[in-house]
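Sample entry was shown:

___
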Amino acid sequence: MAMGYAYGQLERALRSAASATDGAARARARAKAGRWQDVLAGMADGTLRIGSRTPVAGTPAWVTLEVAHGGFATGRYVAEVPLDPAEAALPAAGPGSTDRERLNLWYLTDDGLATLRAALATESYRVEVPEDAALPVVAWLLDHGHPEAALDLVAELRPLLHRLRLAPRPGATPRPAGSLVRLSTVGEVQASLRATGTKPAIAAMLETLRVWHPLFDRLIALWCDTVDGDLPRLTEDGSVSGGWPCRAWPAGWAERRAQWLADHTAASARHTASTAHLHPKSNFARLHRALPACEHDSAELTGRDVGWIRRALANTVTKHGAPGSEARAALRAAQASVAARPTYAELAAVLAERLDRYPAEGGLPEIDVVVEDAPPHLVAKVTRALEAPVEELVARDVITSGDVLATVLPQITAQLLAANLEDDTLAALCAQTYAAFRRRRGLLLLDLEHQVRIEELPWIGALEPLRGHRPDATRAARHTLTQTVLLALGSFPQAILPNTLVRELGALAKQAGAPMPLVEEVAADIFTGTFTAKWRTAAELTSRVMAGTLYARYYDLPATWTAAPRPRWSRAFGKQTADDFAAACVARAEEARPERGFGSVAANGTVLEQSQILTTQNLAVLVDTLALRPRLHASAPELADEVFTWVVRRLALRVDDHHAARQTVKNAAYAWRQAVFFLSFCDEPAQRAAVDRLGEQVARAGLADRFGPAVAGLEQVVAGGRFTGSGTTADGAGRRFLGWTTGTHWYLPERRCQVRECRIEGL
């Protein structure tokens, strides 16, 4: 399966490279194809083990790997880069097999250590990948009376000194103050702005208005000056009336002709976006073709040629007016007004110049001065560099999902974790290291493996004994954890917490002294059929917290888990597994298995959905551990309404592809579960009112026939009813809404097999 996925990604990248219309897009597609070629080559020769937390042979888990989409390691080390000019200028001429090894060893000399100390003292360095902090930690340990720890660290790094950059780049990395965060740096936004291009159709239109129309008007004027009598025009029946061209040759005409041809040649070399004037049957092309043959007169033109000149003049004079007329002048004035407007690319360039006054590695304290007179979509780009509280960035639609929230949260978490270190220079180094560590791309992992944790980095592990626990840092971490959870639930109530955010919340919980069994979403195509012990712990807590609630009745939660056997140690996976929890998920999934499909992705999905139901996918754990019940009571009705509205809108979208339709139903069911959870914190009258509003929305959306059973099922559970073992109400009118099934989902129409498809399948 992994090999097939990688081949598919390579094929897609190659197609993108072949169809790319500009050089930058083509280069990006080729680079992506190169990464997938590396993946496939490594899988073929055995140097890559996809699914392992150490996928590259002979490489420790802590090394930052280049990871392609889907978690596939390419085999390359991110920190394995050539010396940059600043590094090459350092006096590293000692022993070593590579330039990188000689430089790393030089950093361990007196001069090198002095350089690292100076950078630490002034914070004039940038940790771009976690490995950049390794040798600075060595220098700090030596300076603060920990030579044994420093030597142990060097010994662990020694096998890779010849390959990895282990010291930071020079330059400051401004950090947002306090609880402020930014989504991008000023430099990143500038690069995005400068990459803004003009769409080919817009570029062609502007070129036509600015270059070819003025040339066309001069060309028409040239030929009109040769007409004897009235200018040609079209009659009602489409014939041409008026005088004939090539009958008069005013003084200076030949010079004007020569100048026009020269200007046309120059314009053709410089302006290639528009091609309309090149069409052989266009008025422009007909008049242009005849011009080179008339250096002094029309002797080289045939009567047919002159007739086409007359027809072309009649076409344009009738439609737009004669040269110098009010009609043509008004048209060209309007077109010139359009052509004079700056393009988005030009405006983006202006904004990029305005950002030059700010540090490229920092953020913007405010944006009003920068984005004055800019269009909204460019304002949105610049706002990505705004340093502001997370809540403000959510309100400005800069942070639009839990995944995006997870990308900015390390800026706060890093400072909170570093606050437990007494030395300010070390705290600053660790803060940058944490932020860089969170930028590592996660690996595709199988067999209950977990992603590398920051304490597994040897230089961070060497500092763990020195880390204290300050009460003020603990309180700050708990406050940040609570506010982040409330923000995520309030801003994106329809979405389960993404794994990236779950990991960040786990780090905050550890710092806050409130560890909790937070569980990740598991992909159905890599599910191994079992769960670690924390899933059972989360389910136990969920059954206790949600006992007697609408959620417990709707999903038939177990009343208790205390009588079940405790998790056992699995030799195969090297950790404790919760076999009884896995068995409960499988048994409960029978409801969603009208067809046999054990071992299939869909069957795995039905089991995983039950694991999410039994644990509320972290909601109950967070609400209970952080004592959020009072706050949730106040906001629950609004949150439930918001999620129900999202579900109805999503289901109302027309989706023709069957796979996409199944995905829509799955996402809607996950959101529905969130809504039922929120509704469980409302009293019964509020629950009834919410279901009534939901029914009205479903009817207005035209979904009453298809989605009515889900509404009816929820309505009966609110009224005290329960579902049967098959997931229906006693009267058969209501159904429990789940997202996964091994057959055709009851919400979706039956698939009709086309004759051709049936024949192929029959073969």
Strands lie at 65-68, 72-77, 125-126, 169-170, 180-181, 233-234, 240-241, 388-389, 568-570, 575-577. DSSP finds 32 helices and ten strands in the chain.
